[in-house]
Amino acid sequence: MLTLQTIKADPEFVINRLAVKGFDGKKIINDILDIDARRRRLQQQCDSDASELKKLAASIGALMKEGRKEEAEVAKGKVAELKEETKKMQQELEESENEMRDLLLTVPNLPNADVPEGKCAVDNVVVKTGGKIPELGSEALPHWDLAKKYNLIDFELGVKVTGAGFPFYLGKGARLQRALIQFFLDSASEAGYTEVEPPFVVNEASGYGTGQLPDKEGQMYHVTLDDLYLIPTAEVPVTNIYRDVIIPGTELPKKNCAYSPCWRREAGSYGKDVRGLNRLHQFDKVEIVRIEKPEDSYSALEEMKSHVENLLNNLGLPWRILKLCGGDMSFTSAITYDFEVWSAAQQRWLEVSSVSNFETYQANRLKCRYRDEDKKIKLCHTLNGSALALPRIVAALLEDNQTDRGIIIPECLRKYTGFDIID
Asked: What mean pLDDT value characterizes the chain?
């Protein structure tokens, strides 16, 4: 969440930057400032009363020694009254602090100055492209037909056993999944990321820490009996490793990668845009997460973008990078770059990765801090990225690499699949 200091330093700037995300922040920012003023008044009065209580306590002892019992009793009465008033003010202070935190949790992160203005995806800016778009004949099949033809994925069986959006991967389709996961993990390890195998469910505090709560309750699967949430991405448990931690500055950056299944309650519309692997309730993904000093986070972001770009180049897929406009960014992000691959049979771009810098927004919620060389405690910057999400990668691989002999497997995956063609 935004720090109170950020808001107080320049409220108009905060309101104007929030508007880039399409968020009308004028009322809530003014409410936060009003609560802060009330909180400070209460704190000052509490401090003043505490000082007065200390003086009265000292005077009572002196009065008793001097035998001035009546005056001492009057002073004791004042102490009792003051203690009762202080108790009420402390309760009001606690309520004000809780109200402040609740409001701060509803304010999105400020977009970085480089974020373009815009309301939706059509306003995103293409900043880089790569790879060669294949030219397929008129008989080319979309991935859901290829999956059926080669017995790779059974969508109907998933509906029978669980429901829409939970496919079964079969035979070479299952092996292709495992190959991609291992390739992505090995690539991350070679790039200096330490692999973590996290829990696939998290508690409420973890959801608040990374900003899924209270913004995305409707998208998360909630295990109500245990009050746990199925993770929408490994970002959540991995970033929460550093919740309530003060990291020695000499140990930064922290670089982690993790494979996990991911669950999202977002599928439910109909049509070609969500058919097959285009949108699922459960899917596999490898995530990269970094904890950085603020002055290093944007060079780290560039490294992460290059890492994802290299993965797509090794897979031989046509790709493009989009800088998201303010209106298409997530609640928690300061800047986000989406990677898309070309789906040749569908004739459309499919998002396969988002790489984001959250600056101090998540770190403030997490209390993820570091101790600098001057022994000062400061907030870290947090970053994450998909490297990569599997479903649309698989869709593009199947469609873009189909031939009259079968589907050609990219060379980088063959040592993991054990085959070079699906026929």
From this structure: 93
CA atoms in the 13 A half-sphere facing the CB of 252: 27
Mean pLDDT, rounded, for 183-200:
98
CB 228 within 8 A of CB 206: no
Q: Which SS3 state, helix, strand or coil, does residue 360 take? A: coil
Nearest to 212 by CA among 391, 28, 362, 383: 362
88-126 core/surface letters (b: 16 or more CB in 10 A; e: else): ebeebbeebeeebeeebeebbbbbbeebeebeeeeebee
Alpha helix ranges (H) inside 105-171? 143-149, 155-161
**Which pLDDT value is given to residue 139?**
87
pLDDT band at 56; cut points 50, 70, 90? confident
Sorted by sequence, the CB contacts under 8 Å of residue 28 that are 6+ apart come out as 103, 106, 107
At residue 258, the pLDDT reads 98
List the beta bridge partners of residue 284: 261
Which of 380, 355, 231 has the alpha carbon at shortest distance from 288?
A: 355
> Residue 48 has what pLDDT?
84
Can you tell me the distance from the alpha carbon of 420 to that of 82, in angstroms, rounded to the nearest whole number? 82
b (16+ CB within 10 A) / e for 51-82: eeeeebeebbeebeeeeeeeebeebeeebeee
Task: Find, among 136, 172, 169, the residue nearest to 401 by Cα.
Answer: 136
* Cα atoms in the 13 Å half-sphere on the side-chain side of 197: 1
Q: Could you tell me which of 231, 234, 232, 233 has the C-alpha nearest to residue 258?
A: 234
Exposure on the CB side of residue 419, measured as CA atoms within 13 A: 13
Distances (CA, A) of 82 to 48, 77, 102, 402, 405: 11, 9, 30, 81, 88
pLDDT digits (tens, 9 = 90+) for 332-377: 999 999 999 999 999 999 999 999 999 999 999 999 999 999 999 9
Spatial contact of 235 and 127, defined as CB atoms under 8 Å apart: no
Closest among 141, 181, 144, 140 to 164, alpha carbons compared: 144
State the DSSP H helix or E strand holding residue 31, giving kind and residue range, or none if neither: helix 26-65
Integer Cα distance of 238 and 411 in angstroms: 31
Share of the chain above pLDDT 90, in %: 83
Q: What pLDDT, in 10s, does the model give residues 256-309? A: 999 999 999 974 445 557 899 999 999 999 999 999 999 999 999 999 999 999
